[in-house]
Amino acid sequence: MTTEAQEHAASPARPAAKGGYDDKVVHRYDDIEEFDNHLPNWWLVTLYGAIVFAIGYWFHYEVLHSGPSSMESYEQSVAADRRAAAERARRAGAMTDDALVTLSRDPATVAAGQAVFMSNCVACHGANAGGTIGPNLTDRAWIHGGRPTQIYRTVLEGVAAKGMPAWGAQLGETRVQSAVAYVLTLRNTNAAGGKPAQGDNIVE
Length: 204
Ligand code: HEC
Hints:
The protein is built from 9 helices and 4 strands, in the order αββαααααβαααβ. It has 204 residues and is mainly α. The strands form 2 sheets. It has a two-stranded antiparallel ribbon. Strands 3-4 form a two-stranded antiparallel ribbon. Helix 7 (148-157) packs across helix 9 (173-186).
């Protein structure tokens, strides 16, 4: 049995100078040697850099909320896509069912439509569109049809004989389209205290 010092002395091939081979051996057992080598600088820079980055990242997203989370940026890109699709639908001009549904999925268009509704329609349809003089727009029954193009035509041309004004001339097509987009978001939401259903056209 030899001590470490003896073993040290017995290995003349190894350089003895300070900072040499043996100074780096911190543990030696059964001819297995453990070294205390310096970690390469590139490795340390990567490690500390990653830690600093992680702290900054955490503060940015979790503490200060100064950047959109991945969910938020996803929602923003969906909203941007919907806005672009709504813009295309408006430019294409022909208001098909699809085009109106596309408009009803764009929050900006729906918000504009809600504003139109609040200033022009609540007098007869109620603030929650549950119906007063005019019918309930939040149920599944429609007098003049509940398909998007049918609702669009009703609002555009009105039903003069029954007291529903024609809005096309007064509001212009774009605002009527927005109002219809808003009405489409109300279908089958059944506003509390709404008027009983009128009409035989059922839209689920
Ligand atoms: C002066 C009252 C009045 C105003 C204001 C009014 N409506 Fe109407 N609306 C009616 C009446 C009354 C009817 C029912 C017509 C009928 O019985 O044929 C109706 C029907 C409708 C229908 C068809 C409902 C169905 O069951 O087919 C839609 C959609 C509608 N209105 C949307 C609107 C929108 C959007 C506005 C605002 C831009 C608006 N209305 C403003 C009175 C009004």
